[in-house]
Each structure stands twice: as structure tokens, then as C-alpha cells.
């Protein structure tokens, strides 16, 4: 059993990798989930993707039914068993819980070709009937302290840092940081993220259209360049306009 911090790091590690747990039939959706649960809990899930919810997790995970009010957590395993997924099912890992309308899933073989790496997609819950929530090992006292009080070396210190105020819009500029400055919720208008191009600030270009975020989605911010907020982690090339973000918690 691993800690929640380790599980989140594992999710980031998976992105862009080809996972073939059993060595059969290419990079199936189940390969990613089976590898994750085996790494996390040392339990080898059996069956097709839809059978995941019938596994015995030995009290180390809880299976939840997806209801209209249910919002998954990062690290949950999403299981699809209805509609087009009725025969074999589909399965993936929750990368961002989103809200009751959509969540960000990390998955393989969404297109049925079994030849692509684990990648992100916003899902609207169609056919998603269950979520498997693993239990995690205690972080320990030192990890809890570290998570609550970020070391100064991990923060980009400057006048701009003092402009972050809970309940307000995200600031216009913040230097790059190893740790998140704050988390924020997408405002009522929703947001579409952008990809940054260019090798320095003089020729940066932000092209909107990478992903659509529903109002209320929780976002972590690591840098802000001329109003564009770098989200998820410190080297992820996805950006959201600062006026769409309402600061919820400052770290």
C-alpha cells in the first residue's frame, strides 16, 4: 500500500507511457488500471474492464456506484459498464475529479486501437457506472508537515506572490515554481485551456483549444505568464487564462 502523494506521482508518471501489464493484445485500457492497482495495493485484478468492480480488494479499496451527485477523487479508478461499453467495459484512472458533469481521465485504448500511450481526456460520465477508491498508507508526520508548509526553495518568491488572495481572480504574473502556488476553481463561464508555443518570452504564443473545463473544476497553478496560468504540475504545457480562475486555497 502506498501513500496518496505517491499515488498522485504515479499518475503523473503514467502519462505518455505505454503500459502492457500482461504482455497480451497491446496497450489495453485494463493494462493501465491493473498495473496501478497492483503497484498500489499488490492486488492483481482479474477479468475484463467491466469485471474490475467484482474483484476482492481485501478491504483496501471501496467500490462506489456513480450517482448524479457523485464527484470522483484523483486516484480513483473509473469503470464503464453500460452503453457502448456493455460487452467488455472500459476503465481508466481519475486524474482530476472535475465536477458532476465531467472529469479528467487518464486512459489507454479509448479509440480501440490499443497502440497509444496513457493520455488524458475529459469524460462526460457516459457509461461510467462505478468508481474504485483505493485506501492509502498514512503519509507520516514529516510528510504531513511538508505538504502543509511548502519549503521556501520550492516557491518562486517575489512581489507577485503577495497578490494571491483567496476568493479573488488569479494574478497576472507569477514566476515558475516547483510547488503549486494555489488551487482555484473555474468560474461560472467555464474555460478552454491553451498550449504554449515558442522558446522564450519574446515569441511565446498561446493557442486556445486544448481542453474544455466546466465551471467549478479545481485547478492547481504553478506559474503565470502574462495572464496565462500553467496548470496541473510544474512542467505541464497547459494554460488557462487567469480571469477564469477564482483562488480557493493558497499554499
SSE topology:
Blueprint: H1 4-14, H2 29-41, E1 61-65, E2 77-80, E3 90-96, E4 103-107, E5 119-123, E6 128-134, H3 141-148, E7 182-186, E8 191-197, E9 205-213, E10 218-225, E11 228-231, E12 239-241, E13 245-250
Antiparallel strand pairs: 1-6, 2-3, 2-6, 3-4, 4-5, 7-10, 7-13, 8-9, 10-11, 11-12
Structural class: alpha+beta
Strand composition percent: 25-35%
Structurally, how many domains make up the residues? 2
| Name of the CATH superfamily of the largest domain | endopeptidase domain like (from Nostoc punctiforme)
**How would a textbook summarize the main sheet?**
6 strands, antiparallel
Side by side, the strands of the main sheet go 1-6-2-3-4-5
Helix content: 10-25%
Radius of gyration: 19 Å
CATH architecture of the largest domain: Alpha-Beta Complex
Mean pLDDT: 86
For the terminal residues, how far apart are their CA atoms?
27 Å
SSE arrangement, N to C: HHEEEEEEHEEEEEEE
List the uncertain runs.
141-162
> Overall 3D geometry?
globular
Give the helix tally. 3
Might you state the CATH topology name of the largest domain?
endopeptidase fold (from Nostoc punctiforme)
CATH class of the largest domain: Alpha Beta
Q: What's the count of strands?
A: 13
Domain Peptidase C51: 4-133
Pfam families: CHAP (PF05257), SH3b_T (PF24246)
Organism: Staphylococcus argenteus
Protein name: Autolysin
Descriptive overview:
The protein is α+β, with helices and mostly antiparallel strands. The protein has two domains: 4-134, endopeptidase domain like (from Nostoc punctiforme) (endopeptidase fold (from Nostoc punctiforme), Alpha-Beta Complex); 150-250. 13% of the residues lie in helices and 30% in strands. It contains three helices and 13 strands; from the N terminus they run ααββββββαβββββββ. The strands form three sheets. The chain has a six-stranded antiparallel beta sheet with strand order 1-6-2-3-4-5, with helices on one face. It has a five-stranded antiparallel beta sheet with strand order 12-11-10-7-13, with no helix packed on it. Strands 8-9 form a two-stranded antiparallel sheet. A hairpin with a 2-residue loop joins strand 10 and strand 11 (228-231). The longest helix has 13 residues, at 29-41. The two termini are 27 Å apart. The model is unreliable at 141-162 (pLDDT under 50). This is Autolysin. InterPro entries: CHAP_dom, Papain-like_cys_pep_sf, SH3b_T_C. Residues 4-133 form the Peptidase C51 domain.
Amino acid at each position: 500500500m502506498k501513500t496518496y502523494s505517491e499515488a498522485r506521482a504515479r499518475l503523473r508518471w503514467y502519462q505518455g507511457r505505454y503500459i502492457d501489464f500482461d504482455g497480451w493484445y497491446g496497450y489495453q485500457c485494463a493494462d493501465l488500471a491493473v498495473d496501478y492497482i497492483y503497484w498500489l495495493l499488490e492486488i492483481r485484478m482479474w477479468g475484463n474492464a467491466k469485471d474490475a468492480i467484482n474483484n476482492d480488494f481485501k478491504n483496501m479499496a471501496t467500490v462506489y456506484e456513480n450517482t448524479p451527485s457523485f464527484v470522483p477523487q484523483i486516484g480513483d479508478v473509473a469503470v464503464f459498464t453500460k452503453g457502448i461499453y456493455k460487452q467488455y467495459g472500459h476503465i481508466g484512472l481519475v486524474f482530476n475529479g472535475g465536477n458532476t458533469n465531467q472529469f479528467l481521465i487518464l486512459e489507454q485504448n479509448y479509440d480501440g486501437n490499443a497502440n497509444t500511450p496513457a493520455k488524458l481526456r475529459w469524460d462526460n460520465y457516459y457509461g461510467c457506472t462505478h468508481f474504485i477508491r483505493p485506501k492509502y498508507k498514512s503519509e507520516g508526520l514529516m510528510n504531513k508537515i511538508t505538504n502543509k508548509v511548502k519549503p521556501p526553495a520550492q516557491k518562486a518568491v517575489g512581489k507577485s506572490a503577495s497578490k494571491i488572495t483567496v476568493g479573488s481572480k488569479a494574478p497576472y504574473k507569477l514566476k515558475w515554481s516547483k510547488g503549486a502556488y494555489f488551487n482555484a476553481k473555474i468560474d461560472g463561464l467555464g474555460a478552454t485551456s491553451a498550449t504554449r508555443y515558442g522558446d522564450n518570452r519574446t515569441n511565446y504564443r498561446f493557442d486556445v483549444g486544448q481542453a474544455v473545463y466546466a465551471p467549478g473544476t479545481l485547478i492547481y497553478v504553478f506559474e503565470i505568464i502574462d495572464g496565462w496560468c500553467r496548470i496541473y504540475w510544474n512542467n505541464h504545457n497547459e494554460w488557462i487564462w487567469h480571469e477564469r480562475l477564482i483562488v480557493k486555497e493558497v499554499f
